[in-house]
Amino acid sequence: MKHWLYLGIAIISEVVATSAMKSSEGFTKLMPSITVVIGYGIAFYFLSLTLKTVPVGIAYAIWAGLGIVLIGIVSWVVHGQKLDIPALIGMGFIILGVAIINIFSKSGGH
Description:
Radius of gyration: 15 Å
Number of domains: 1
Mean pLDDT: 92
Helix content: over 70%
């Protein structure tokens, strides 16, 4: 069960780092730039812990899928990015895919 917590920390850290990358304005602003480096460091460390028990394909599918959705939400809320109906439907399919993996797949780590 710890591996899912690790994956959650990895995903949230990656989302924070990616959002900070936008705010760093090409690494010209110090604090967002530091946030990017630290955030990705934390993200990859916790992803590496996850991969001790969860197959890389499953972990990465969940990481990428939830990361895309969360970045879309953060971009909308923080950076004013517009999300149209096709974008929202696509994000819905991504969430559905992650749910299917977690509920039905026997490939995940236990």
